[in-house]
Specification:
Layout: H1 5-23, E1 30-35, E2 38-44, H2 47-50, H3 57-69, E3 77-83, H4 87-95, E4 100-105, E5 130-133, H5 137-156
Parallel strand pairs: 3-4, 4-5
Antiparallel strand pairs: 1-2, 1-3
Length: about 160
């Protein structure tokens, strides 16, 4: 599937957020939320830094976007994420009424938008999100591989950080 230039631009911005996570030894996932062609929410994983299991990129971006709009309903917004959202994040996206989700790579261990579960398009829920995948997939996958290789090397060398 071919996407518009804007989709690639916003996903590139999400990749930049993922690199911030990588730089602070967090799982490199980044997200941006777009409203009327403007990024209104940004986030990157900060679970370790904040000691908070909910500090995923998507959750931080949702909070920023809701604050920007002064509204929890983000039904005119799209989110761009470098990795398929987990159950918690997919649930938050549905609750926030996000319009569309674009993500880079599937998460075969925790994914909830097509790989293990598909909460975003579940007909039993009151809101469905349009889901698109594969945008900058190789770049996101490479960043994740580099992170986990670095983590394995640090652990095998006795560094417990």
């Amino acid at each position: 599937m071919t996407f518009s230039e804007d989709v690639y631009r916003y996903m590139y911005a999400a990749l930049q957020e993922a690199e911030k996570a990588f730089d602070i030894n967090e799982v490199p996932v980044g997200a941006v939320i777009v409203y009327k062609n403007q990024i209104i929410g940004r986030g990157y994983n900060q679970v370790e830094m904040l000691k908070d299991p909910t500090a995923h990129a998507e959750m931080i971006a949702i909070t920023a976007a809701a604050n920007f709009l002064s509204n929890w309903r983000l039904n005119e917004c799209d989110i761009y994420v470098t990795m398929e959202p987990c159950i918690m994040c997919a649930g938050a996206l549905v609750s926030a009424r996000i319009n569309s989700l674009y993500f880079s790579v599937f998460d075969t261990k925790f994914g909830a938008c097509g790989s293990i579960f598909n909460l975003c398009e579940d007909q039993r829920l009151n809101h469905k999100i349009k889901v698109y995948s594969g945008i900058y997939g190789q770049e996101s996958e490479d960043l994740l591989k580099r992170f986990f290789e670095k983590l394995r090397n640090e652990k095998s060398n006795g560094n417990k950080n």
